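hey so u asked for the seq, here:
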Amino acid sequence: MDRELQSKVEKLHFLLKSYGCVAVAFSAGVDSTVLLKAAKETLGTEQVMALTVQSSLVSAADVEEAVTFCREEGIRHEVIPIDPLIYYDVRTNPPQRCYFCKRLIFGRMREIIGQKNIVHLLDGSNVDDGQDYRPGRQALRELGVLSPLLEAGLTKADIRAYAKELGLSVAQKPSAACLASRLPYGEVLSIEKLQRIEQAENFLHAKGFSQLRVRSHADMARLELLPEDIERFIADGTYQKAVAKLKELGFAYVTMDLEGYRMGSMNEVLRETEYAKE
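ran it, structure tokens below
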């Protein structure tokens, strides 16, 4: 571990020690996994609890990974079933959707940890998250959620390097996001649409493609693969199988985004608007 990263990790440990007993919002992604592992090593299992949301907006595979990790690490864990789609401000998918969804989810987490006399609720936000439109950050601030990775100055690259030092298998796990981020703002969300996206992405993952998104535009799928994967997708004939599978799932058209995978591509249309400036 280089000196700069060591300094950031030491600050993270200092922050965690200052909190005492904590609950970690745990998605099984690399950020929250590193945070949870660091909290366990710093505070001990008696002072740490993990909370994982189970909903139509979250991959079922990630929930299973979260359960397995906590069981293997001996960490107290609670899976919280929530249906955000029953709420108008989430289901109608406005540009501020993430704010309303975070208020709902972290508000529920606050209720749960309050019953257990845990004061501090932590999330895995990091420095790089500030590079994209993140209205959910406002909800976290309003609810007093702490982001120690961010406060310690850790970037995504730092977190992956630290995960490797900790021996965590998620060190190279592709970045994930809420399934609702695959649809354009204003298109009403439904369980059927989200399940179709999840199944399409699972199919492509099973074909050996790691970092990707299946963006859904009504009856059209727009595939985002890493630029270096696009040629293989075409050359080995996977595209034909993908087209057949996605049409079987209900898409009428399947297209390839030639810009490739990029974080938050659905936010690109907002970047010159008032939302992007919040």
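The longest helix spans residues 97-115. The beta strands are 22-25, 48-54, 76-81, 120-122, 212-217, 220-225, 253-256.
lmk if thats what u needed
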